[in-house]
Amino acid sequence: MTTTLPPRAVRRCHHPVNLFHSTVYFSPEFGEELAGVGVTDPHAAYFAGRAAAMGAVGAGAVAGTFYNFDHALIARHLPAVWETASPADVLAARLRAVDRTVRRLLGDAVDSAELAEAAELALRATEACARHARPLYAAHADLPVPDAPHLAYWHAATLLREHRGDAHLAALLSAGLDPLEAVVSHTATGTGVSPRWVLASRGWEQADWDAAVERLRDRGLMDEGGALTEAGAALREEVEDHTDRMDTAPYARLGAAGVERLTELAKRFLATAAAAGAFPRDLTGRG
Q1: CA 158 to the chain's CA centroid
Q2: Among candidate residues 94, 111, 121, 112, the one with its CA nearest the CA of residue 23
Q3: Which Pfam family would be a valid example here (predicted)?
Q4: DSSP characters over the chain
Q5: CB within 8 Å of 144: residues ≥ 6 apart
Q6: 160 with 251: CB under 8 angstroms?
Q7: In 3D, which of 123, 181, 132 has the Cα closest to residue 152?
Q8: Cα 189 from Cα 223, distance rounded (Å)
Q9: C-alpha gyration radius of the chain
Q10: In this predicted structure, what is the pLDDT of residue 282?
Q11: Are 70 and 203 in contact (CB under 8 A)?
């Protein structure tokens, strides 16, 4: 397909779709449903919840596909978590959490024609996704599409998120950014996860963060004040442009009008979810 999309249309559409996907992992319902199948540690629940579509994988597969988590943290929980709950158990618990979370966050909009429309558009976009060299996407693409529109929309959002995410890792590797350098440089743009959240959730220590900052300074990508240099900002933009190029097909499948409509709907549902407290207030930023 050769449909021409407006500049950055892919990125603008993906952003609210991706953030809607992520709401479940911040929800109390996710922790409750995973605890219901015996997985009570928050790190174990997250790793199992996102990795279960790949089967009973170990720490190496998760480090490779999640990218910015310390392997040692992952290895404390995988593959041991599968002795507590099978991947099928975890996937079922995750879907129950999605149902409860989305119903709480969206309220009456769960049954709206607009949400059904968003699900239809997002699912149509996934028809142009490609499995090869995209392990997290490929694993999720083999899962059945739920019948209920709010679950179908979340499922499609997950497919679009993992399709772009797998490509994004290739772009980061091409840019020479290791897992923590990728996080540090993203945070320096002012839009990434805050250092506090990174250190609390991804297994790195402050010394690891400081070392990554030094490596970026040595490459001329970050200044002494912790801000990106002109070269650093240009590299981050190229990473996103590179990712856009590898993630164009699903959105080209919709065409410019379809992408504009999905973006409009996705922003609307994301705003509703955010207003209902979907995300921690201090999740993002440089602080």
Answers
A1: 8
A2: 94
A3: HTH_67
A4: ------TTHHHHHHHHHHHHHHHHHHSHHHHHHHHHTT--SHHHHHHHHHHGGG-S--HHHHHHHH-SS-HHHHHTTTTGGGGTS-HHHHHHHHHHHHHHHHHHHHGGGGG-HHHHHHHHHHHHHHTT---TT-HHHHHHHTSPPPSSHHHHHHHHHHHHHHHHHHHHHHHHHHTT--HHHHHHHHHHTTSSB-HHHHHHHS---HHHHHHHHHHHHHTTSB-TTS-B-HHHHHHHHHHHHHHHHHT-HHHHHHHHHHHHHHHHHHHHHHHHHHHTT-S-TTSBS--
A5: none
A6: no
A7: 123
A8: 13
A9: 19
A10: 79
A11: yes
CB 127 within 8 A of CB 253: yes
Q: Which two tokens stand for residue 37?
A: 């199948």
Residue 286: the pLDDT is: 61
User: Can you read off the two tokens belonging to residue 219?
Assistant: 């490459």
**Cα separation of 153 and 66, whole Å?**
22
d(CA 3, CA 26): 36
**What's the rounded Cα separation, in Å, for the pair 156 and 115?**
12
- Cα end-to-end distance, the chain, whole Å: 43
Residue 16 to residue 23: CA distance in whole angstroms: 11
This prediction has a pTM of 0.96
Q: For the chain of 287 residues, list the mean pLDDT of each consecutive stretch of 10.
A: 81 97 98 98 98 98 97 98 98 98 98 98 98 98 98 98 98 98 95 89 96 98 97 98 97 97 98 96 72
| Phi, psi for 161 (deg, rounded to 5) | -65, -50
